Structure formats: C-alpha cells, structure tokens
C-alpha cells in the first residue's frame, strides 16, 4: 500500500542519528541515473557513500548500496528486523516503503558513510525520504505526468510536490530542460523557501560537453544535473575531469538502455535492448534511441517488443511513442514484486488493446510467462532488433531469469 506522509517514519527514526549528509534526488525521469552518476563521482574521489534507490532490481536489498556495492542480505535483514520490531513496539503503522527507507538510513549510520545519495520514492514533499536531516544539496530531474492520482493532474501540481524536497539555504539543482511552466513553479517555491536554484544545462557545463556525441542527450542532461550537485557538495573535487571522466564512462546502470545477452534463455546467440521506460516521457526517450540505432538504413527491419506495464498506467500513450507499423509485440505480466504488494501488473489483454494493433505484423499474449514471451520474441525477431520495455518490474524479472540460470 502507498500512503504518503512523514509522521510514521519520523516515529521510526526519532532516536536514529543522521551523522551523514545527504544528496536528495526527486523528479519523474532520470532520478536513478543521476544517483548512479553521483555515486561514481563520489567513489572516484574515495568518498564513502550509501545509495538508496527504488524499486530494487533483482533482490529486495539491492536498492541499498554501500560504496556502490549492494548491501549484504544478512546485514539488510538484521536492520530490517530491528526497524520492524521498533515499528511494532511504537505501533507506528509504517508502510512497506517507510520500513525500507528506515532500514536504509539505519544501515548508512551503522556503516558511517560520509554521504547518502537518496532517490525519492514517490513525489517529494510527503515522501518518506523527506525526513532527511542534513541535506547538502537537492536535485529535481525531468518532470512528467505520472502517478497523477497521488500527485496531481497537471505538470505544475506535480512539480510543486517534487519541489517539496527543497530546504531553506540548501541549493537545489533543477533540470533546465523542463518546460517553462515547471521551471516557474521551482523558481516560485525556491523564493518562498529561501532556496538558491541552479539550472543544469549541458550548454553551460564544460564537463558534460565532454560526453556529447558519446552519451544520448537525456544521459548528458542527467549527468549535468549530477555534476552540478557534486560541485556544490564537494567543490574541491569537482574540476578533476581526469578522475571523474573514466568513472562516468565505466559506470553501469542496469535496466536503462542496457544491451543484454540472453543467449542462455533462448538457446541461440541473441542480444536485446532492455529499458525500464514506463511513462510517456521515458517512452519517447527510448523511441528516439531505437529510431537512431535500430530503425536506420534504406530498409530497416521492424522491431519486436516484449512489453509489460503496471496497472493504471497510460499505456496507450506509451505505446504510441514506441510502436511503428510492421512491428511485432508480445504482451506479458511481470510477477509479484517482493516487498511491494500494492504493485499489480496490467493484464495482457488490456495491454494489447492499448497497442495500435492494426499496424502490427504480429502479436502474442504470453499472459504470465515471461520466459515464454522472450522466446516468442526472439523467434519472431529473427535477426531483427528486439526490445524489452514498459516496466522496471519486467526488467527485474528478466535480470532474475538470467541470474538464476532459467532455461
């Protein structure tokens, strides 16, 4: 169950010190990548750091990392049990996400990290992560329409919820590529709360320009925001491009434009593009990448898609960006999400109805068979491009199949 509010987690953490400083990241798209870039910059300079992002990808504890390594299961369960016991004793009634965030903060304190890189779970103002006490800098990435039932029906309403992570006198880096009406919300809220705003734009960042042509435009934009925040938190290290550049080039962030070898799953040499694009804005970014890299040449081959979605998503708008005439689609439902029982997969018949099926070369309903959906797609695609997208939870299922050696 998702239930926004700070009272329950404040109760859980009332006696837990936060001796580490925090970099807090909100937004609709790009939050996870920004957190990953920041971690790479911190580690390149031997700064001890924790990272908390959501959702997890393979195991429930991999959303918490220390110095870019997922926390060990035994340590996670120890502190999770501590937090759950406290929740029972205090009758705090914390939600699953609040318990998880509190567990992360306990681990960061126990590991004596210098800085925590924290991704907002949902929104900002009332998100459990907004109990952070020592924010060094905040970041707000690209804003789009998502979770409207909880955050508002307009970009302005959603932006105001995200702006709730701002703190007086703590600088906030905002993605300058946001629409002007969104930037106006940030400016207004920043003035009201006494927050200095920094607009992150690749055009004014010499560091980001080093990656132009190598990274995709949205990646450069996210990197710019991360570097601006890093400069504010650690100005003494921010200009060391010779240290930061290789760290960024070697960074890996699963489930975002990830080229993946699935030979073990389909029993023949095969790569796929794996991406967690799950809303119209991220779908547009993925579509631009696919158009640029796969729909090229005089007679480009159609794309075969493996698609899933969370229930309630505007998948018609997502598929409008992704699907082109002649493409093939297999719809599938991702499995139960450990620790997030409120998440439900969209039924495959509903998903296929949302796809412009009249223009498809073929379609298939795999229902709950993720492995079967991949095998159908690989067979259908032949030597043409294959893309798995629509949900980070589907990404998790695919990565888990590969990790567990399913065949």
UniProtKB/TrEMBL annotation:
Signal sequence segment: none
PROSITE patterns found in the cross-reference section: FOLYLPOLYGLU_SYNT_2 (PS01012)
Lineage, opening ranks: Eukaryota, Fungi, Dikarya, Ascomycota, Pezizomycotina
Entry annotated with the keyword Nucleotide-binding: yes
Enzyme Commission number(s): 6.3.2.12
Keyword annotations of the record: ATP-binding, Ligase, Magnesium, Metal-binding, Nucleotide-binding, One-carbon metabolism
The family this protein is said to belong to: Belongs to the folylpolyglutamate synthase family.
Claim: Metal-binding is one of the keywords in the record: yes
Catalytically driven reaction(s): 7,8-dihydropteroate + L-glutamate + ATP = 7,8-dihydrofolate + ADP + phosphate + H(+)
Pathway where this protein functions: Cofactor biosynthesis; tetrahydrofolylpolyglutamate biosynthesis
SUPFAM superfamilies (UniProt xref): MurD-like peptide ligases, catalytic domain, MurD-like peptide ligases, peptide-binding domain
Protein name from the UniProt record: Dihydrofolate synthetase
């Amino acid at each position: 169950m998702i239930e926004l509010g700070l009272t329950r987690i404040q109760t859980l953490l009332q006696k837990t010190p936060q001796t580490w400083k925090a970099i807090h990241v909100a937004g609709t798209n790009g939050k996870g990548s920004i957190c990953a870039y920041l971690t790479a910059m911190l580690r390149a300079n031997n700064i001890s750091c924790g990272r908390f992002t959501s959702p997890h990808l393979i195991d429930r504890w991999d959303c918490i990392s220390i110095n870019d390594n997922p926390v060990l299961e035994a340590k996670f369960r120890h502190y999770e049990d501590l937090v759950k016991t406290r929740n029972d004793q205090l009758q705090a009634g914390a939600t699953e996400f609040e318990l998880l965030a509190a567990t992360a903060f306990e681990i960061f304190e126990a590991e004596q990290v210098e800085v925590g890189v924290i991704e907002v779970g949902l929104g900002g103002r009332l998100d459990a992560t907004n109990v952070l006490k020592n924010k060094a800098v905040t970041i707000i990435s690209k804003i789009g329409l998502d979770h409207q039932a909880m955050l508002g029906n307009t970009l302005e309403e959603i932006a105001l919820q995200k702006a709730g992570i701002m703190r007086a006198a703590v600088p906030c880096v905002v993605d300058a590529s946001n629409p002007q009406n969104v930037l106006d919300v940030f400016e207004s809220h920043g003035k009201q709360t006494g927050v200095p705003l920094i607009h992150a734009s690749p055009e004014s960042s010499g560091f980001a320009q080093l990656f132009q042509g190598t990274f995709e435009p949205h990646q450069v934009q996210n990197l710019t925001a991360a570097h601006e925040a890093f400069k504010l938190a650690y100005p003494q290290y921010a200009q060391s491009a010779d240290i930061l550049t290789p760290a960024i080039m070697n960074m890996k962030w699963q489930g975002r434009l990830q080229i993946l070898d699935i030979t073990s799953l389909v029993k023949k040499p095969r790569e796929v593009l794996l991406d967690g694009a799950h809303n119209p804005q991220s779908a547009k970014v993925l579509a631009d990448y696919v158009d640029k890299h796969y729909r090229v040449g005089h007679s480009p081959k159609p794309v075969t898609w493996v698609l899933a979605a969370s229930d309630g998503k505007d998948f018609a708008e997502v598929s409008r960006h992704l699907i082109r005439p002649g493409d093939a689609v297999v719809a599938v439902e991702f499995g139960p999400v450990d620790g997030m029982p409120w998440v439900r997969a969209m039924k495959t018949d509903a998903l296929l109805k949302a796809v412009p099926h009249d223009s498809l070369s073929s379609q298939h309903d795999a229902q709950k068979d993720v492995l079967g959906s991949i095998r159908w797609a690989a067979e259908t695609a032949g030597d043409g491009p294959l893309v798995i997208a629509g949900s980070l939870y589907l990404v998790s299922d695919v990565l888990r199949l590969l990790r567990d050696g399913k065949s």
